[in-house]
Design a protein that fits this description.
Protein name: LytR/CpsA/Psr regulator C-terminal domain-containing protein
InterPro entries: LytR/CpsA/Psr_C
Organism: Arthrobacter yangruifuii
Helix content: 25-40%
Number of helices: 2
Pfam families: LytR_C
Number of domains: 1
Number of strands: 5
Radius of gyration: 11 Å
CATH architecture: 2-Layer Sandwich
Strand content: 15-25%
Oligomer: single chain
Length: 83
Amino acid sequence: MTVFNASGITGLGAGVSGRIAAAGWAVGPVATWTGAPQQGSGVYYSSPELAANAQEIGVQLGIPAMESPGFAGVTVVLGPEYR
Protein backbone atom coordinates (compact mmCIF):
# COMPACT_ATOMS: atom_id res chain seq x y z
CA MET A 1 0.00 0.00 0.00
CA THR A 2 1.04 3.58 -0.56
CA VAL A 3 0.91 6.29 2.13
CA PHE A 4 0.56 9.93 1.09
CA ASN A 5 1.08 12.78 3.53
CA ALA A 6 -1.27 15.67 2.69
CA SER A 7 -1.19 17.05 6.23
CA GLY A 8 1.69 19.47 5.94
CA ILE A 9 3.31 17.82 8.99
CA THR A 10 6.82 16.63 8.19
CA GLY A 11 7.36 12.95 8.92
CA LEU A 12 3.70 12.08 9.54
CA GLY A 13 3.54 9.74 6.54
CA ALA A 14 6.62 7.84 7.68
CA GLY A 15 5.25 7.53 11.20
CA VAL A 16 1.91 6.18 10.02
CA SER A 17 3.66 3.85 7.60
CA GLY A 18 5.65 2.45 10.53
CA ARG A 19 2.45 1.90 12.55
CA ILE A 20 0.81 0.09 9.64
CA ALA A 21 3.90 -2.07 9.07
CA ALA A 22 4.13 -2.90 12.78
CA ALA A 23 0.54 -4.16 12.59
CA GLY A 24 1.64 -6.63 9.90
CA TRP A 25 0.65 -4.84 6.70
CA ALA A 26 2.96 -4.62 3.69
CA VAL A 27 3.72 -0.96 3.05
CA GLY A 28 5.22 0.42 -0.14
CA PRO A 29 6.08 4.00 -0.99
CA VAL A 30 5.57 6.91 1.39
CA ALA A 31 5.33 10.30 -0.32
CA THR A 32 4.07 13.83 0.00
CA TRP A 33 0.67 14.33 -1.63
CA THR A 34 0.99 16.54 -4.72
CA GLY A 35 -2.63 16.40 -5.89
CA ALA A 36 -5.49 18.75 -5.09
CA PRO A 37 -5.63 19.97 -1.48
CA GLN A 38 -7.28 17.42 0.80
CA GLN A 39 -9.93 18.31 3.35
CA GLY A 40 -9.74 15.00 5.19
CA SER A 41 -8.01 11.67 5.49
CA GLY A 42 -9.02 8.37 3.98
CA VAL A 43 -8.05 4.86 3.03
CA TYR A 44 -8.90 4.44 -0.64
CA TYR A 45 -9.20 1.10 -2.39
CA SER A 46 -9.49 0.43 -6.09
CA SER A 47 -11.76 -2.63 -6.17
CA PRO A 48 -14.34 -4.38 -3.95
CA GLU A 49 -12.05 -7.30 -3.11
CA LEU A 50 -9.74 -4.86 -1.28
CA ALA A 51 -12.55 -3.40 0.87
CA ALA A 52 -12.02 -5.59 3.95
CA ASN A 53 -8.30 -4.77 4.13
CA ALA A 54 -8.89 -1.06 3.58
CA GLN A 55 -11.61 -0.97 6.22
CA GLU A 56 -9.40 -2.71 8.77
CA ILE A 57 -6.57 -0.26 8.12
CA GLY A 58 -9.08 2.60 8.40
CA VAL A 59 -10.20 1.33 11.80
CA GLN A 60 -6.57 1.06 12.97
CA LEU A 61 -5.90 4.65 11.88
CA GLY A 62 -9.29 6.10 12.84
CA ILE A 63 -10.11 7.27 9.30
CA PRO A 64 -12.77 6.19 6.79
CA ALA A 65 -12.23 3.69 3.99
CA MET A 66 -13.85 4.28 0.61
CA GLU A 67 -13.75 2.80 -2.86
CA SER A 68 -12.10 4.99 -5.46
CA PRO A 69 -10.99 3.45 -8.78
CA GLY A 70 -8.60 6.38 -9.28
CA PHE A 71 -6.17 4.82 -6.81
CA ALA A 72 -4.12 1.67 -7.34
CA GLY A 73 -4.60 -1.01 -4.69
CA VAL A 74 -4.96 0.41 -1.17
CA THR A 75 -3.80 3.98 -0.61
CA VAL A 76 -3.75 5.96 2.64
CA VAL A 77 -4.05 9.74 2.31
CA LEU A 78 -3.40 11.70 5.52
CA GLY A 79 -5.22 15.02 5.45
CA PRO A 80 -4.62 18.21 7.41
CA GLU A 81 -6.74 17.08 10.39
CA TYR A 82 -4.82 13.81 10.97
CA ARG A 83 -2.65 13.71 14.10
